[in-house]
């Protein structure tokens, strides 16, 4: 049985679909084009290898769109003015390298650079992958040339991407909650003070709760210490 012929003979074409085909209207279209952009930690890109190619790929890992962007910013002056998601509008990913577009609108003041309405979309990263999540936040940095360059803020090389996010004020800090705790020291009993800290932990999404605990733990445990000293006078 010829299923293709049977389908063509038996299919029903409505007047609307017939009208659309007779006049040659496009049946589907995607605009603008969307390019997926990789995000990963240094030497953390996905690599496919065989037993024969493992050593070579370990020494010279494949370029990704992210590492290619770093390399592009080292070689191309115009690329240094771009954010990572903006790159596909001006460059094409070809043979593991970003190359300038050959068609599109000319960019004023930059001979040889052309613009096309292509969108770049960076892959999402779950917050439990802490460093990679914060690296993705740092893609608002213009023209970075390396992973170390992204972690450098005001001339200071941060130890982690999270620290760099704090320095660039991409994350909220706990300064307002620290002020709340400082005020609570003089106004609340240790029991109430502990309740205040518990409320902050539950509802205020503290960035660094351990720091607040270490700063105010003596005030929160003052009544326990007094009670213990009353039971054991020799205890300091």
From TrEMBL:
Task: State the superkingdom.
Answer: Eukaryota
Q: What protein name does the entry list?
A: Uncharacterized protein LOC115230614
Q: Which organism is it from?
A: Octopus sinensis (East Asian common octopus)
């Amino acid at each position: 049985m010829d299923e293709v012929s049977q389908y063509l003979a038996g299919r029903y074409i409505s007047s609307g679909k017939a009208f659309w085909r007779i006049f040659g209207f496009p049946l589907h279209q995607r605009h603008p084009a969307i390019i997926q952009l990789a995000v990963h930690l240094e030497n953390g890109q996905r690599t496919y290898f065989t037993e024969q190619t493992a050593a070579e790929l370990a020494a010279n890992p494949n370029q990704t769109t992210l590492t290619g962007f770093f390399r592009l910013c080292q070689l191309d002056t115009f690329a240094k003015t771009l954010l990572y998601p903006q790159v596909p509008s001006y460059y094409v990913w070809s043979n593991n390298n970003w190359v300038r577009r050959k068609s599109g609108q000319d960019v004023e003041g930059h001979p040889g650079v052309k613009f096309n309405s292509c969108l770049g979309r960076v892959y999402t990263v779950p917050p439990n992958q802490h460093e990679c999540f914060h690296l993705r936040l740092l893609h608002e940095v213009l023209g970075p040339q390396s992973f170390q360059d992204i972690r450098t803020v005001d001339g200071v090389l941060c130890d982690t991407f999270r620290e760099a996010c704090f320095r660039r004020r991409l994350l909220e800090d706990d300064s307002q909650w620290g002020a709340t705790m400082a005020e609570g020291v003089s106004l609340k009993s240790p029991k109430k003070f502990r309740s205040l800290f518990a409320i902050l932990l539950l509802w205020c999404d503290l960035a660094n709760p351990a720091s607040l605990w270490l700063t105010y733990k003596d005030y929160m445990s003052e009544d326990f210490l007094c009670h213990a000293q009353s039971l054991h006078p020799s205890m300091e």
